[in-house]
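The protein record now logged underneath.
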Amino acid sequence: MAWGKKKAGRKEPLFGLPAALADLRLTAADRVPGGGDDKPKKPAKSSAKRKSEEAGDEPPPRERKAQASRSGAKRRAKSGGGFGLGRLIYWGAVLSLWGVIAVIGVVIYVGAHLPPIQSLEIPKRPPTIQIVGIDGSMLAQRGEMAGANIALKDLPPYLPKAFIAIEDRRFYSHFGIDPVGILRALVTNVMHRGVSQGGSTLTQQLAKNLFLTQERTMQRKLQEAELAIWLERKHSKDEILELYLNRVYFGSGAYGVEAAAQKYFGKSARNVTVAEAAMLAGLVKSPSRLAPNRNPEGAEARAQIVLAAMADAKFITDAQAQASIGHPSYNVKPAGAGTVNYVADWIGEVLDDLVGQIDESIKVETTIDPKLQGVAEAAIIDELAAKSVKFNVSQGALVAMTPDGAVRAMVGGRNYSESQYNRAVTARRQPGSSFKPFVYLTALEQGLTPDTMRQDAPIEVKGWKPENYTHEYFGAVTLTQALAMSLNTVAIRLGLEVGPKNVVRTAHRLGISSKLEPNASIALGTSEVSVVELVGAYAPFANGGFAVAPHVVTRIRTLSGKLLYMRQPEERSQVIDPRYVGMMNTMMRETLISGTAKKAEIPGWPAAGKTGTSQDYRDAWFIGYTANLVTGVWLGNDDNSPTKKATGGGLPVEVWSRFMKTAHEGVPVANLPSSPGGWGLSNLAQAASQVSPPTPAAPGPAPVGNGGYRPPPPTRANVRPEPAAGLDGWLMDRLFGGNR
């Protein structure tokens, strides 16, 4: 039975008004086709479909949807079979276009932050500072570029090949960027789950070193790539390789293979062996970590990897690689251990005042005598090596200069590589009794003579009771005897007699530049000074009374020969009357004959000087001089801790004697200046005969403690605490009891 089929002949009854209206309905036959119907016409149906509808045979809703779906599928199959592939191609093209635009945009953006390509030039090497001695020999070099440029053709062929083997095997085949190398590095890093291999070419490394910073950003990496391509277009492969070898950093301040070879092997890069070439190539990966002077084992292990890479690339034979690995001939020099580097640092501090900003490499000619510098270094190092433990002394300094102030040798510490602190120039230490000559000179200038008698007896200054080093008192003594024996009570009496302010003026007039406190204890050297200024202040005693300015630079030239600076002769300023120069030399000469520096002697040479020992044996000094050299020695500890009774007449005198004996070998003997017709070395014997050796006087009141008031020791070297309260400004915080 068909769905919706009505029974034949059946009519529903109609009643009332609807029944009357029912007869007025139009049938399909009564309608006029197209007549006045506002609705759009529907397409004519097929006769079969029409008959089916007239018969009432309509499909159910589900079947109608299925039919519509099948009909749509047929239409898509007919008209859109190629539509999906077309859309894929279309969108692929659109995305590719946008990708190209994005890449171009990035390139433009990165390039916009570079200087104009047409203006890019290979930057000049930073200036080198060559420091030479008085004989023209090289003492030290400063500046980033310590080595000269060296041509590729002058290098042994295995040296550049070592870098190519380990850093950029495809150097001669890529265009500045190596996609194969980048892919290989990427795969290796993924496999090792970390950065174990880089993909940068030698050209990229050169671009970074020449033009860019070391920051690790994507922008810098893209700039590096652009510059690498530009370098490849502008320069040949050999030119790029030569630039690279002369600019790459090798650690320890060495830039370029020539500087590195000189630094580590003491030879030119022209003469390095295969093993040494491999070590240099291996340093590029991590110069600070693999520098052979700091990590010889790591440097050698890395060199073996380079040798294996060279053999794998057929740059050397397997036999050469094995021979180099089995017998490495590394002659690594210690980095910066030489004490002449203290001199180089001092020169670096004054260069700006002499020539201003340095734009090109220069040569600095100095007053340093390389032979004497070596002797001074050995004297300090050997003495400390033998006796530093016994006396608890860890550091030392030495300055030797001519009587006109030209520094011939300077040692700022026992080992520059361990400590670059210059104890000869920068450190300020209490000079102890080595300051007393300024007190005695002030006394002479106020009318006293070396024969003047003064009492050596206990003294008290507002509660402070200084005592002599030996705890003995000799009664009436001459000033010559008091200075030679370093009697503290006489120095205190003289200082108070002439006035502490006048003593300070005398010291400043002779060359002391540090601040000095004008109090009673200044006579015992309680204000700190540096070694170089104290030695310079003694120079007038050796040159006849003229002030000097310690100096080390005589001439500065560019490497092309242009003169930038020349030291001009200074106008001689008489700061000590010649009469008093002779008197002081007589008195300080006695220090080496019968006083505290009897061990100090130079056969055949008249010499004079003064020892000094600070409170609790913290500092030991000796400043001595001849007509040829003025030399000062200091020994102590950086933390200002006490030594084990190291005195100025002990270790410093031994260092001084060893140095001065060698320094005066072959030099014609010369006398110290003496007073015209007065006091001098010629009448030293007469002065000695007039004054009998002192004998201890009756003991006075027992000293309180160890010389009276003593403040707490400082917490670090060269730092003076505030003065102790209650001393009314007379006494400094550090007071000596028994200085020598």
